[in-house]
Write a structure and sequence with these properties.
alpha/beta
Length: about 280
């Protein structure tokens, strides 16, 4: 979102909210779920060309799934918001060298999957379809919103034996408040937006979609929580809260990588590969 557009949105959601809170709430929820596809880069086409590709149907549309290698043990990659499977390219080579089969997916509204809007319910439905088609997995690696979805998928079906959560937010409520702060939504608009989200995801969505509530139930799943101390998108404190609530979990805090470089730097990738290798 460009700064001039954001400036206009902030004025509308702050001052016009008193006049039309219902209308702005509908627009606000739409904007919250709206996805954006960054420009494709040449290296992305190269890494995707080395994979076999298939399209799977979900109740919300088509998702694109990629497979690298033929190893018996499989690793699932879950991208974050406005990301896609190709952004995990630095993980793919070392995983293949370790004789894993790597499965990546473009979430609903992302990459080559259909649509331009999604929410956590649609993302979880897509994960379940991939699990039914290619699972179970030795490990699942999720970045940001992809990592956030992992505990709720594990609560519903045996997705993977291990989980790695990178730069993962702690709750849906935090994501909602953060977005409302970004657009500077007036209190009346926030309340109406919250009601619309509850109609979409269920009245108990704020309680259920909280990693701190799910983690204690998943104590048998080994998990590595990875976060950077300079993450400006999701504060590192979220990782500490998740690790504190997930029995037996491990925490890795990197330095000066930020939110996105976790997907590219050896300081995060090498410990993750080592964690997957551990019995």
């Amino acid at each position: 979102m460009t700064r001039p557009r954001l400036r206009v949105l902030r004025i509308l959601f702050r001052y016009a909210g008193a006049c039309s809170p219902q209308l702005l709430a509908r627009w606000g929820v739409y904007l919250w779920g709206k996805t954006h596809r960054p420009a494709w880069r040449q290296w992305e086409h190269k890494i995707l060309a080395s994979a076999s590709r298939e399209s799977l149907s979900t109740e919300h549309g088509q998702i694109t799934v990629y497979r690298w290698g033929r190893g018996k043990k499989k690793i699932l990659l879950l991208p974050g918001w406005n990301s896609r499977a190709s952004h995990f390219r630095n993980f793919i080579k070392p995983l293949l060298e370790s004789d894993y089969q790597v499965i990546g997916m473009d979430p609903p509204g992302h990459g080559y999957s259909s649509g331009n809007w999604t929410n956590i319910r649609q993302y979880l439905a897509a994960i379940e379809v991939v699990y039914e088609n290619a699972g179970p997995f030795e490990a699942v690696i999720g970045h940001s919103f992809g990592g956030f979805c992992i505990p709720f998928a594990l609560d519903r079906f045996p997705l993977a034996r291990k989980a790695i959560l990178l730069a993962t937010p702690v709750s849906l409520d935090w994501l909602f408040v953060r977005f409302c702060d970004i657009i500077d939504a007036a209190p009346s608009v926030r309340q109406k937006m919250k009601q619309r989200v509850e109609r979409l995801l269920g009245n108990n969505c704020w309680q259920y979609y909280d990693v701190r509530k799910q983690a204690p139930k998943l104590s048998k799943i080994p998990v590595l929580v990875v976060h950077d101390d300079r993450d400006s998108g999701v504060p590192c404190e979220h990782a500490r809260e998740i690790q504190a609530c997930w029995p037996g979990s491990k925490l890795l805090v990197t330095h000066k990588l930020g939110h996105q470089r976790l997907l590219r730097h050896p300081d995060s990738i090498n410990p993750i590969i080592a964690f997957i290798h551990q019995d």
